Amino acid sequence: MKLVAWVLGPAGREEWPGRPGAASTAGAGLGVRVAAAVAGAGLLVAGTLHVVWAFSSWPLDSRAEFASAVVGVEESQLPSRPLTLAVAGLLVVASWLVVTGARPANRLAASRLVRVGLWTVFGVMSIRGLGGLVVSGLGLGGAPAEFRHGDLLLYSPLCIVLGCLTGYVAARTRRHRMSPQGRA
């Protein structure tokens, strides 16, 4: 439990006294903190899986099976190791953005970088999820049936859930400009 408190920090509105015009995030209540913890963990696990996939075909036996079932391409069309590691890195950064955005006590939480990052993660994950449902659901693009099945049951819904959780965190911790008297 202390780990969760360390990751998410204290709840409530954190104002920065003595900094006229400073930006602050609205208080991150329990719902926002839970959403951030779940989304952050999901994005971190996805990033970790991409690191594993850069070096192996786990949980499948061969790269050809992996390419077909997990990526939806021929083995010769698999993304390169550096590209897979770049995706892993972006997922880890996305995890950090979500957790940081839900920590009002953290000065970075209200920064433009984190705010834009949160909305970007929301957009990318939502587009991937909704696009996957459309493409796999309608059988567009010529992906193998086993990939379309996994995309409809797992990959796209997971992306939608992670996107929605991130959007919830972004919306509930929106920026507020502080007046010189320290009031919003």
UniProtKB/TrEMBL annotation:
Q: Which Pfam families match?
A: DUF3995
* InterPro entries membership: DUF3995
Q: Give the stretches traversing the membrane.
A: 34-55, 83-104, 116-140, 152-171
| Originating species | Streptomyces cyanogenus
* This protein's UniProt keywords: Membrane, Transmembrane, Transmembrane helix
- Please report the name of this protein according to its UniProt entry: DUF3995 domain-containing protein
Instruction: Report the superkingdom from the record.
Output: Bacteria
Keyword Transmembrane helix attributed = yes
Q: Does the keyword Membrane apply?
A: yes
